[in-house]
Design goal:
3-stranded mixed beta sheet; 14% strand
């Protein structure tokens, strides 16, 4: 976004410098497109078939800690938003296991507003009674 803004608003920039900005902007747009396509290809079938709650329940079942999961997104959001939420929560759970010394975790995914979702992983039971996993 910043490269696009610079490309559109900067004046008086020498030609070679502007060319670098233009090329960087085009490369960034291509990289984002590739990432979006990758994400679309990676998300599990259960996410498409049964939704975010079912997909995250599967992730939570594989975490070696007790997980309290609550998903409150009705009606369903777009598949892109679901995929992003899925990967963010998956990564957050991985990080809790690796770094938090938590004895359990609570994850709430809830719709906030007309078009987006928010999540808030908390280590509600995060007493440092479990040794950290090796890095």
């Amino acid at each position: 976004m910043n490269l696009g803004l610079a490309r559109e608003t900067l004046t008086g920039v020498p030609g070679p410098a502007m060319q670098v900005i233009v090329e960087a902007h085009e490369e960034a747009k291509e990289a984002l497109t590739e990432l979006r396509n990758l994400i679309r290809g990676l998300h599990p079938a259960v996410l498409e078939d049964r939704g975010l709650d079912a997909a995250l329940s599967g992730v939570a079942a594989r975490v070696p800690l007790p997980v309290r999961l609550r998903v409150e997104i009705e009606p369903r959001v777009s598949s892109t938003v679901e995929a992003v939420a899925y990967f963010v929560v998956s990564e957050a759970l991985t990080n809790v296991v690796k770094h938090a010394r938590a004895t359990g975790v609570t994850v709430t995914v809830a719709r906030r507003g007309p078009c987006c979702a928010s999540w808030s992983p908390t280590t509600a039971w995060a007493a440092p009674t479990r040794p950290a996993a090796p890095a």
